[in-house]
Design a protein that fits this description.
This protein is an alpha+beta fold. The protein is built from 7 helices and 8 strands, in the order αβαααβαβααβββββ. Strands 1, 2, 3, 4, 5, 6, 7 and 8 form an 8-stranded mixed sheet that branches. Helix 2 crosses helix 3. The longest helix has 17 residues.
Length: about 250
């Protein structure tokens, strides 16, 4: 790991911002489709909750679920950008709603790329975009890095090996927030929050509904947010040297 990374970690800065996160709003629909009525749905959800992993911090059970849930579950099998599979996860968010949506669209392409065949009709999904207020005196700000080789490590599109080491060093040095350039949005900035106490919002703010539609060929996603005009993303926007990068 480059010494500049350690220098950034050793000299944390203050951060006070509203950040954005997006989640798919499908849980109630999925369980209702299985159970067909509200009473049975409630019983099933209570049963499922008993098998969910415990919160790393017991205080999280008193926080709003949209704030607490990211700290409850480990990363996916390949890990997250800064967290390894066996660790509790970070709360990932973006400093703008546009960057947040772009990141989400990329991962929709990753998810649907694993399907065996094209769809007979476009697939619509509903999402909740929300923001929370964050304040911390222990932020490792990697947007300060200007060396292109070091930046390529932070923003790698398909290799988290080095960023896992950075995440571990940040945790060992009591860093609350990692601030870093987005790998999917050229001018976007993301954050990875390790300490839920720096999220000072009691509940999500500025909640907005986002509809995403992926076409039958799975190479185009249309995004509609409230009264805004639809925005179209293509899988080609995320390719590198003609290849769509995926951690899977």
């Amino acid at each position: 790991m480059g010494s500049l990374f350690s220098d950034v970690i050793a000299r944390p800065v203050g951060l006070t911002k509203d950040v954005y996160r997006i989640v798919e709003t499908q849980a109630d629909t999925a369980t209702m489709a299985l159970m067909q009525n509200i009473e049975k749905q409630s019983a099933l959800e209570s049963l499922l909750d008993e098998y969910k992993p415990p919160y790393a911090d017991p205080q999280l059970q008193h926080r709003h679920y949209l704030i607490a849930s990211p700290f409850r579950y480990p990363p996916l099998p390949w890990g997250s950008r800064f967290g390894q599979r066996f660790e509790h996860s970070f709360f990932y968010a973006s400093e703008s709603s546009a960057t947040c949506i772009t990141e989400s669209v990329y991962y929709r392409f990753v998810f649907f790329a694993g399907k065996a065949s094209n769809f007979s009709i476009p697939v619509l999904t509903e999402h909740c975009l929300f923001s929370v207020s964050v304040t911390s005196d222990a932020c490792a700000d990697f947007t300060q890095v200007t060396d292109s080789n070091l930046l390529s490590v932070i923003t790698s599109v398909d290799d988290y090996t080095q960023t896992h080491k950075i995440g571990r060093e940040c945790r060992n040095n009591d860093i609350d927030v990692i601030r870093y350039p987005s790998a999917r949005d050229l001018f976007g900035i993301n954050v990875a929050i390790d300490n839920p106490n720096v999220i000072i919002s009691d509940e999500p703010i500025l909640k907005r509904t986002v509809i995403m539609q992926i076409n039958q060929a799975r190479d185009r996603i249309t995004v509609k947010t409230d009264k805004d005009f639809p925005v179209i993303f293509t899988q080609a926007q995320f390719t590198v040297d003609g290849i769509f990068p995926s951690i899977l």
